[in-house]
Amino acid sequence: MPRVSVKRAYDDPEPEDGYRVLVDRVWPRGRSRESLQLDSQAPQLAPSVTLRKWFSHDPNRWTEFHERYERELQAESMQVQMKELLAAAHGRHITLVYGAKDLVHNHAVILRDALLRVSRLSETRS
After folding, report:
1. Partners of residue 6 on adjacent β-strands
2. What count of other Cβ atoms lies within 10 Å of the Cβ of residue 44?
3. What does residue 43 show for φ and ψ, rounded to 5 degrees?
4. Pair 45, 84: CB distance under 8 Å
């Protein structure tokens, strides 16, 4: 099973980051493509615009945001895209790059857990 971690776009890339994927719909302010050193972008795996705007990074809405984003990730199209992301990394460590300031209450944490579940399910079916 691949390792999946999360990292702010404002933290410097490191070799151990492995396969770096930007998972935001909005480009991180003040960051260039070169500075992010991305292998891929997956804005389609970020929360819907409606959900992102509703959440507005309010920790008081975290529980409901978590539940609603999990439901979005259950859609078949999202499951397919997560499998494609896992395959594109070719077994390397995956780092989900995001722009939010909050290290705990952000969508990348939820997406990481969802990717690990998809990976486990794929392995048990193999």
Report:
1. 96
2. 11
3. -65, -25
4. no
100/52 Cα distance (integer angstroms): 11
Q: Which two tokens stand for residue 6?
A: 């999360």
Backbone dihedral angles phi then psi of residue 92, each to the nearest 5 degrees: -75, 160
Q: Would you list the domain boundaries of the chain? A: 4-125
What is the C-alpha to C-alpha distance for residues 126 and 28, in angstroms, rounded to an integer? Answer: 37
Provide the pLDDT for residue 126.
55
Summarised one tens digit per residue, pLDDT across range 15-70 is 999 999 999 999 999 999 999 999 999 999 999 999 999 999 999 999 999 999 99
- Residue 72: which of 53, 46, 94, 98 has the closest Cα? 46
Which amino acid is it at 41? Answer: Q
Give the rounded distance of the alpha carbon of 61 from its chain centre: 19
Q: Tell me the pLDDT band of 85, cut-offs 50, 70 and 90.
A: very high
